Amino acid sequence: MEGIFTFFGVISHNHTFIFIAHTLLAAILVLVVAKLATRSLRIVPSGCQNVMEAYLEGVIAMGKDVIGESYAKKYLPLVATLGLFIFFANIMEIIPGFEPPSGNINFTLTLALIVFIFYNFEGIRKNGLKEYLAHFAGPVKILSPLMFPIEVVSHFSRVISLSFRLFGNIKGDDLFVWVLLMLAPWIVPLPGFALMTFSAFLQTFIFMILTYVYLAGAVLLHEESL
Q1: Is the whole model's pTM more than 0.70, yes or no?
Q2: What residue spans of 68-104 are helical by DSSP H?
Q3: What are the pLDDT digits (tens) for 4-15?
Q4: Domain of 39?
Q5: What are phi and psi of 205, to 5 degrees?
Q6: I need a labelling partner for 151 at 20 to 30 A (CA). Which of 19, 24, 36, 204 fits?
Q7: Is 65 within a domain?
Q8: How much is the CA Rg of the chain, to the nearest whole Å?
Q9: If you ran DSSP here, which 8-state letter would residue 8 be given?
Q10: Is residue 104 part of a domain?
């Protein structure tokens, strides 16, 4: 946002530069956490390894109810990486001097397109192009000319849903606290920061669970028809 101090803004006031710098920072933080967690692996985990193992077990448990344990583990690298990346991008909004890249539509749209392309690719790879496209027509053949375009539009709308949900919530929280800071810079904004912290976790969870849901709809066609 214009007029807000950021550490990267000291180097350049160009908004594109600031956005890219914060995005790279989020990616670097993910790599640092991964390195710390795997630097000295132990049978009895401690420190960062313990936290990351708990996180990965939580992601598998989340996906198991949606797509089954085997698929939850198969797609764990994608979902867990997205979760870490989005979380670090979100949490920057509560740290003075940083701007959350997830408050930029380019960031959220890119991640939504990655998920969209990947789950469609997995659906085609698992079921074959013909069978995968056939499921867009629905179970009733007479309604297939109507259902097919509706389903196609519905799938493309997921890109908008994923990207704008994350962008809108993070940007909205940012603007809300910005207004509070202008009106009353002491004490009053604290509930706003608590709200942003909760939102950072919640929006990360929603993006991850929806990724599992979309993957389940793409690869479990036979289970859907039972």
Answers
A1: yes
A2: 69-74, 76-91
A3: 677 788 888 888
A4: 8-225
A5: -60, -45
A6: 204
A7: yes
A8: 20
A9: G
A10: yes
